[in-house]
Design a protein that fits this description.
Radius of gyration: 22 Å
CATH topology of the largest domain: TIM Barrel
Number of strands: 17
CATH superfamily of the largest domain: Metal-dependent hydrolases
InterPro entries: Amidohydro-rel (IPR006680), Metal-dep_hydrolase_composite (IPR011059), Metal_Hydrolase (IPR032466), MTA/SAH_deaminase (IPR050287)
Shape: globular
CATH architecture of the largest domain: Alpha-Beta Barrel
Organism: Sinorhizobium meliloti CCNWSX0020
Keywords: Hydrolase
CATH class of the largest domain: Alpha Beta
Number of helices: 16
Protein name: Amidohydrolase-related domain-containing protein
Number of domains: 2
GO molecular function: hydrolase activity, acting on carbon-nitrogen (but not peptide) bonds
Distance between the termini: 58 Å
Helix content: 25-40%
Length: 475
């Protein structure tokens, strides 16, 4: 018989529509699934989970994170986008061994899980061999969370290397099924980073393998070569396509996304910090696309969804307020706290193709839940639960996390994770990466991870990248 658990005494946010912005409800689980939600539930044979002083809600979904970069955390805190490309990619990426990418993915996934991100799409562009791909995938599998492995080719400019053989291998072996906790998608290089011919070949491959596609589009100056429009012209957009960022694509390209049923991923913190352009949240909403949210890279920004929601909310409200003019004359705010909480949950699930399984608390869905402390002094008293989550929330509130009906964090402690051992291995990995970088024949003598190093950017200007990517011919 499947294990039964009855969650009682908590304030519940279901996000299922007619109710659930915060009311006292009980939730009955049987195995991985929710089998009942009601004010009172009798289940004498169930394990009782007392959620007193807790807000119980769906786990967060991060739809775009370069998890392999975990060991470079904070490196790009003062860097532009071009410096990030030079520093994280050109300087360090080719130095990663399979062991390094495994540890980066495992520790990065554990970090996200601990802060309430129950599902994460790992946009894995640090892969330089089949061994690296296997190690990256295994890092996600060994973490106790739900993940999507967004396989992508090793980034470089130009980058037209075929990926058919390795992607097929992964699909036929490690990811032969779609119902596991870790599934496969294609991290498409796309017209920003490769030719349109290679883009088309890769999309056709993904469709043949029954995989979702996630692609950068509109990343600062790199995204001004109409990446979405060029894909649209070749019939390469559909409901299984997620466009990441969207800052500098045209309004007509956003309309194309809407017409094709595409989803979007907005990474507001990194987009503002690195100069991508203002987050496209409002422009997407205006055309009927409710975006998901993402972190992007912990080299530059924090890795939790609370500050990501808050940044998305405040950035768009600032843009809206500036357009409206005088504050005393405004009748209210357009973007609400509930909106960004939905972006961080059900819209993320939708972008990952998992909205029938997770993203809201509903009977029949799998139990991916987080328990947030409402008696923490930083949020007490909680009057408006969704406001607490979107405005005042932080990782310190995450008491417990459940994935598919199993606790992976409880009472503030991760379950089944030897964190001190993994962190020691992570430090060793970081030190080896630094040593390798300094040993290169063309090493930058100023290289350091403590904020003193600011890489040159000449090779990563928008003009240089776009020019190199289109040398093989435009459509």
């Amino acid at each position: 018989m499947p294990r039964k658990m009855l969650i009682k005494n908590g304030l519940v946010v279901t996000l299922d529509g007619p109710r659930g912005d915060g009311e006292k409800l009980a939730i009955l689980l049987e195995g991985p699934r929710i089998v009942a939600i009601d004010r009172e539930i009798e289940a004498g044979d169930a394990e009782i989970v007392d959620a007193s002083n807790m807000l119980v809600m769906p786990g967060f979904v991060d739809t775009h994170r370069h998890t392999w970069q975990t060991m470079l955390r904070g490196l790009a805190s003062d860097w532009s986008l071009a410096q990030y490309a030079k520093g994280a990619h050109a300087t360090f990426k080719h130095l990663y061994t399979p062991s390094d990418i495994y540890l980066g993915n495992l520790l990065g996934r554990i970090e996200a899980l601990s802060s309430g991100i129950t599902t994460m799409l790992d946009w894995s562009h640090g892969i330089s061999s089949p061994e690296h791909a296997d190690a990256a995938a295994q890092g996600l599998i060994d973490a106790p969370g739900r993940s999507v492995f967004g396989y992508s080719a090793h980034f470089g400019f130009p980058n037209n290397t075929p990926i058919d053989e390795d992607l097929r291998r992964l699909r036929e072996t490690v990811f032969s099924r779609n119902d596991g906790l870790v599934t496969l998608a294609l991290g498409l290089r796309g017209p920003q980073y490769t030719s349109i011919e290679r883009t088309e070949a890769d999309v056709r491959l993904a469709r043949d393998l029954d995989l979702n596609v996630t692609v950068h589009g509109g990343s600062a100056g790199w995204g001004k070569n109409r990446p979405v429009g060029r894909m649209f012209e070749r019939g390469l957009l559909d409901r299984r396509t997620t466009v990441v960022h969207c800052n500098t694509i045209g309004d007509d390209e956003i309309a194309m996304m809407g017409d094709c049923g595409c989803t979007a991923s907005v990474s507001p913190f990194v987009e503002i910090q690195m100069g991508f352009g203002w987050p496209a949240t409002g422009r997407l909403l205006a055309r009927g696309i409710r975006p998901s949210l993402s972190i992007d890279t912990c080299t530059a920004v924090c890795g939790d969804m609370f500050r990501t929601m808050n940044t998305a909310l405040i950035a768009q409200r600032g843009l809206d307020n500036e357009e409206k003019g005088s504050a005393p004359d405004q009748q209210g705010l357009d973007l609400r706290c509930r909106d960004v909480v939905e972006f961080a949950t059900i819209e993320g699930a939708r972008a990952c193709g998992l909205d029938r399984r997770i993203g809201t608390l509903e009977v029949g869905k799998e139990a991916d839940l987080i328990f947030l402390k409402m008696d923490d002094p930083t949020v007490f008293p909680v009057n408006y639960p969704l406001g607490m989550v979107a405005i005042s929330g932080h990782p310190g509130l995450v008491d417990s996390v459940m994935v598919a009906g199993q606790f992976v964090k409880r009472g503030g402690h991760l379950i089944g994770v030897d964190l001190p051992r993994l962190q020691a291995l992570g430090v060793d990995s970081r030190e080896r990466l630094i040593a390798r970088a300094k040993a290169q024949h063309d090493a930058d003598l100023a290289l350091a991870l403590d904020g003193r190093w600011h890489p040159p950017t000449a090779d990563y200007t928008a003009a240089a990248v776009t020019g190199r990517n289109t040398v093989s011919g435009r459509d």
